Structures are given as C-alpha cells and as structure tokens.
Here is the input.
Amino acid sequence: MKKEKEIKLEATGWKIGGIAEFLALSPEEAEYIENRTNDRLKGSGNAADDECSGESMPEGMN
Here is the structure.
C-alpha cells in the first residue's frame, strides 16, 4: 500500500497491520499459514491429500 494512503487511513482511525497481527497468531502459527499459502500458490498438494500428508500443525491449531 502506498504510504500516502496509509497515512490517510490512519488519520481517519484505521489501523494498518498484517494478517498475523489481525488474527493474533503466534510466530509458529503465522509461519505454518505462510508455508501452506506458498505451497498452494505454487500448486503443490491438494485439499484431498491434506489429512494424509503426515504434516503436523502447530500446537493449538488442530
């Protein structure tokens, strides 16, 4: 986002931040989400295989 737009939004009461801050994610949870998102964007894996992948989720996300 352009700095000028950020300044205007903050001046009207909006708070600018990232998704991890918005969702109050721990660093481990944020890393997990980031890795999963990147995998999806690259086209690896598919939703049907998620539970069989053996990949573990961060504590508290399962």
